[in-house]
User: Which sequence fits this backbone?
């Protein structure tokens, strides 16, 4: 059985990247709200809006710092707990049953995931999707089956539904672990 980070998956963001990814949009959003409320004086001209934009980004910095500390800590804690540093998880498991049997019973696996449902099954793989929770906008889970005689090798992958997700608090690793336990327990 293998597991952990997926080769080729993006590295988890640094705390600096988390701070910028949360603070800059927050600051710009704040600046747009100020501009919609009246913005700079009419005689300030374009320079007034440039100053407002710069001030907005600077104002977003404390928010970004707080978010980097909080989200960075939660992701680091999840990485220590699950062994997966990023937001994409993969594990390979050997099933005691045949590949077609695994695919025939994959609807059971979907029921193990929060808000899980089966979206597609074709020759050799099944696609599952999880629902929205307080930690996630949902995940795409792939169950790829490779027959090996009377048994099968099953590759499980889970990734965020929203492609620019930076932090998942171990949610994808938990999905893969649940499914790996299910595959290993198939009679």
Assistant:
């Amino acid at each position: 059985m293998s597991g952990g980070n997926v080769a080729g998956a993006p590295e988890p963001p640094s705390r600096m990247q988390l701070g910028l990814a949360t603070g800059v949009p927050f600051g710009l959003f704040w600046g747009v709200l100020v501009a919609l409320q009246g913005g700079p004086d009419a005689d300030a001209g374009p320079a007034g809006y440039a100053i407002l934009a710069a001030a907005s980004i600077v104002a977003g910095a404390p928010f970004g710092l707080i978010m980097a500390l909080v989200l960075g800590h939660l992701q680091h804690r999840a990485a220590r707990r699950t062994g997966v540093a990023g937001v994409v998880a993969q594990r390979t498991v050997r099933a005691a049953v045949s590949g077609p049997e695994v695919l025939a019973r994959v609807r059971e696996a979907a029921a193990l995931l929060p808000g899980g449902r089966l979206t597609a099954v074709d020759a050799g793989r099944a696609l599952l999707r999880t629902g929205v929770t307080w930690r996630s906008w949902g995940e795409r889970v792939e169950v790829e089956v490779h027959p090996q005689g009377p048994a099968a090798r099953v590759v499980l992958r889970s990734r965020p539904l929203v492609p620019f997700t930076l932090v998942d608090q171990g949610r994808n690793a938990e999905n893969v672990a649940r499914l790996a336990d299910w595959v290993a327990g198939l009679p």
